[in-house]
Design a protein that fits this description.
Low-confidence stretches: none
Distance between the termini: 15 Å
Strand content: 25-35%
Order of helices and strands: EHEHEHEEHH
Radius of gyration: 15 Å
Number of helices: 5
Structural class: alpha+beta
Helix content: 40-55%
Length: about 130
């Protein structure tokens, strides 16, 4: 685990892991706001090859609302990113830790929201194996 995210190697093919991640996010109340296929973007814009690498920008609307009530500029730290990629034939899952990103803001309510969101994201992390 890095200081700013939860990361693990999965015993799943990339596509199956993607399905499990989306299901786990939905179960925890997260919406997928953006889906960036980095490999495809690099192919189209740079004409280079790259491994499978997906960035999902996620949001849990009730928590986003609470965060914006606590600090209108908290939106600068949205969405919560989840990445899935292949590395050396293995599938890797990494999920942001909102307590790290929002911990820089001196606002106790925002920190409480970040803690709750991180708990839900940790459930997502643990649900995908």
């Amino acid at each position: 685990m890095s200081d700013y995210g939860y990361t693990k190697e999965l015993n799943l093919p990339y596509e199956k892991a993607g399905t499990m991640v989306r299901e786990a996010l939905h179960k925890e109340g997260f919406e997928i706001l953006s889906k960036l296929d980095v490999r495809e973007i690099f192919r189209e814009k740079l004409e280079i090859g790259f491994r499978k690498y997906l960035i999902l920008g996620t949001c849990n609307p009730p928590f986003a609302y609470r965060a914006l009530q606590a600090d209108e500029n908290a939106g600068l730290l949205f969405p919560c990113n989840v990445i899935l990629y292949e590395n050396g034939g293995k599938t890797i899952l990494s999920i942001i830790r909102p307590t790290r990103t929002m911990g820089a803001i001196d606002n106790m309510e925002l920190r409480r929201v970040a803690t709750e969101v991180e708990r839900k994201l940790k459930h997502v992390f643990e649900a995908v194996w």
